[in-house]
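Problem 12. The chain below contains 388 residues. Write out its predicted structure in token notation.
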Amino acid sequence: MRKILFQLILLMLCGVSMAQDVVDEYDYLKRTSIYDTADRLSLRIYGHSFFKNNEYFGDFVKGYTLPGFHFQPEITYNLNRQLSFQLMWNVLKYHGTEKFQEANPYFRIVFRPKDYFTIIGGYLEGNVKHDLVEPIYNPERYYLGTYPDRYFARNIENGIQLKLSKPRYQGELWMNWENFILWGDDDQERFTVGHVSKFKVVDKTLWRADVVGEFLVAHRGGQIDSSDAQMQSLENGAFGLDFHRLGRNGSNDGAFRQLSLRAMLVQYHSMSGTDDLPWDDGWGTYIKAHLRMWNFGLTAGHWYGHKFLSFRGDPLFSGWALDDADNKEKRSMLFGELYFSKNYFDDVFTLRTGINAYYDVKAGQLEYAYMLSMIVCPRFTILPRKKI
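Solution.
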């Protein structure tokens, strides 16, 4: 435990916001930001109605449907240009049940000691905003209040986050504390540490190329609990290249808006060597192209995995089957998505619909999913901006 914390502290000291100047297929889930307003006091209401149906029949995840809504009112107070406080209430509920998956208050402090450096404490700017590849982080976690025990995590992230944005470099480092324990609790503490770096190697008006590095570690353990469970530390990483070609009118106007290509080498490593995992090390190659024209988007990609496991990623990219007898050391999969996404009424409302397809080359099996998403995000000024 001490060794892991020491490594995490070192990462924080050298770790470093992920500035987005291009669009991707998950942009509709990135509508809100800590930089949205400089008003002294403001109210933002985020409402998201969604329907997602996964028709999965393979060995790695069974089909299921997610119909529901996500509602989050948020009050922001800007003391000055450097310090902000934010209080929000996060609600997640699925249709067809009286229970709420999530209905809790959260608090966030945002401190900017420099224009290019931000420290966040409390409710993190996380989830899909980390911009991790799907084998490492499943974007569908955005819709989930809980996840299967194998992944021991929730969609809400709380902890500490450091963000750095310079002309040639954008990066972030965060610690998400997922399970807190007291002395003698029959449970383990759990947390995740992540880091993303992007170095711009080409930065032209219409062209951009970034070298990208991603790192995610999940740990469960502790020294004050009474649990007999074994300590576990799992790591996923990715390294590769992001390429973007923008349209002449930018990424949000005109017919041709953007062409992107991402090529990544992804790896997995069990730092604790626990017995309940099929493999201790693995790797994979991830290639995906994204074309945006008008308000339509098309993605196409290929995944090859060798003894690859993921603890936060999309299970379709993992070799770990629901039945351990069906684990696959090697996986080859073609995947893609066709979607429509458009903002209306001065970007207050977003409509998004799409269909995903996944083809397991070795098994010769096709799986698919489709979704409809509607998001409203109005903002109201309570106290206008002064000289802050």
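Discussion. Confidence is low (pLDDT under 50) at residues 1-20, 147-153. Students who got a different answer should revisit the alignment rule from Section 12.3.
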